[in-house]
Design brief:
171 residues, mainly alpha, 81% helix
Length: 171
Amino acid sequence: MTRLQATVHAIDQFTEFCGRALAWLSIGMALLTTLVVILRYGFNIGSIASQEAITYMHGTLFMLGSAYTLRHGGHVRVDIFYRRFSAQSQAWINSLGGIIFLLPLCAFLFAISWNYVVESWSIRESSAETGGIPAIFLLKSLLPLMAACLFLQGLAETLRSAEQLIKGRSE
């Protein structure tokens, strides 16, 4: 295994581990949502913290799950044309798309969200609701974390496509 393949494999393994761990969060989110509904409509008991916890779980699942979705080809693309292209053409599109669009977007999102998150951490920003979760700064931390994870997986996908292009030339 070359260094390039080892790097791609390591990133893929990290993304796979994170994605599978996040899948369990969806079960917790569904159970907590069910509990909130039963308590509210069955017993007239409400909990701001529980409702916010669902929002935190939802944000975590979708923000951090974006890299796993990319890894498994689940993001939207213009498949009407893409699927008709040869493997080499698809590799070109994936490589250029990663280099021109995905990686710069992730770097931009990371950079633009960094101060926003640092400020939130510096004041330990908490919920404006009485009884809410006193950790909005943790929720906001998902922004640069998502950008970093998506950048890593985007790099792996771009390197995988580049390797395919290199192999195609040597054959």
